Amino acid sequence: MNIRTAAGAAFAVCAAIVIGIVIYYTYGGDETENTDGIRQFNSYSQIQKVLGEIKEENPIVYAMGGEPVVEEDLAVKDAEHSDTYIQVEGVDEADIIKTDGKYIYYTSRLGYDVIIAKVTDGRTEESAVLSEEELGLSAENLFLTGNRLVIMGNEYQEEVGYYDPGYTTVTAVCVYDVTDPEKPELIGKYRQSGNYVSARITDGYLYLITNDYLSSEEQRIVPLAGVDENYDKLPADHVFCFPKPYSKSYAVIGSVKTDSEKGKLKTKTKAVLGSSDNIYCSGSAIYLPDYKVDYRNFTEQGADERTWIMKAEISSGEIDFAAQGSVRGWINDQFSMDEKDGYFRVAATAYVKGKDVNYLYILDENLKTVGKVKGFAAGEQIKAVRFMGDTAYVITYEQTDPLFVIDLRDPAAPEMLGSVKITGFSSLLVPAGENMLIGIGTATSEEEIGEVEDGVKIALFDISDPKSPKVLDSIEYKGWSSDVQYNHKALTVNREAGWYAIPYFSWETEEGGVLQFRVNGQALEEMEKYETEQGIERCMFIDEHIYGLGSEEDEIISWKMAH
Questions:
Q1: What is the rounded CA–CA span in Å between residue 503 and residue 406?
Q2: Which domains does the chain have, with CATH numbers?
């Protein structure tokens, strides 16, 4: 695993735990709780009063990292090159590497720079470098939309330590015109206070989400945001709260018009009392889940643990906080959430009476529960979810990997239809035609110490009969690890040619590469292993070549495709 990736993940968890020092309002049972009456502040004195009413407590808190219909793979929009594997059509997701088929844009493995490399028939040549100092930020994530390169990361301040409690963490965005990729031109820089959570681009607007914790070392009471030098506190009427704010922190959403003219970057920023550890974006709304545990209200059911969900409607850069609710348990990842026909569907795992149990909730537009499937797969945790139209496919795991099929056609009465088990577990479910699902995840084996994870596993499921799903085939690669096991963006799909690719690293040979495979009839077929001397974090294809981003050096490795 890339050391910087592991360190970043550890820091994100620590930051989420710090953010979790909050006041709790306990609700019993399994229902979603919603309170109408979102408040828009009119003055800073009103904000100060509400903050003063939140009595900070210190319960033990854990934060878990943790759409329109997705009926086919959305990873490829152009047969000539691959795009980032996304969840919702028309809603792009940030990643560490992007391509337009002629150039590859990626963040440095050795630092926090951005490198632009020209691609010519399998060869790459460095064309430009945007350094950390020039950007004024530590580049972590990218978007490429039209002729705009959008770069995001923590603001670079060499004289200030990132762990100084008196220092406000700032997430910055640089928008570049890359009409000439060899001479990128800065359009403008936007900054917003808080730690980076996630970002999306839809309909020409970037939506950036940060968690802004109000440190006791600081005197401010609202988030900060602005373009270039106009970085200042938000106006009071851009700050909101729900009737029962549960945190002295803010979820901040900033929008940036990506095709703005140079020096005229158009932005809007709003904030709501609360925080988030993940997001789901449907294109018309952003859902902000935040998992909290309060052990002070312990019952025979266990601690009060639930995921609070805030909904923000978005359109043409406008942001309107619309509803708040909560569900019992924690959400595994963004694929555990979905929106369809005005309903929000979410799968969660809770710890009840000493064991994990799982739920699938259907919420209305006001985030009130209208239906649920309650308490399935006791003793197991949700590892993967895929919503496809009116059906949900859920993977849980303890020692085997059950695939559950849930009918969602009646929002008031979702129904468990069938299930099938397989060893190991999938962490990503990928549609493969109308009647099959590919599960990509982790191979396991039984050792003296118990069940151990020891490789990468790919499984093929037949879902033609929802009451009786079947395992058609599986392949295991012992001693392997892959970024795709915990990050869907590491998957590459060539929908037209019908193949898939994942990066990997072999702990046995200490070499890495890219695995190319496909579904052949009712079987999985390994097409080729493209090998190199280091681990690969991402892979993509351009014309007849596969390209891999090495995890150790600032280089792109390429292979001529065998198929």
A1: 31
A2: 3-421 (no CATH), 422-563 (2.130.10.10)
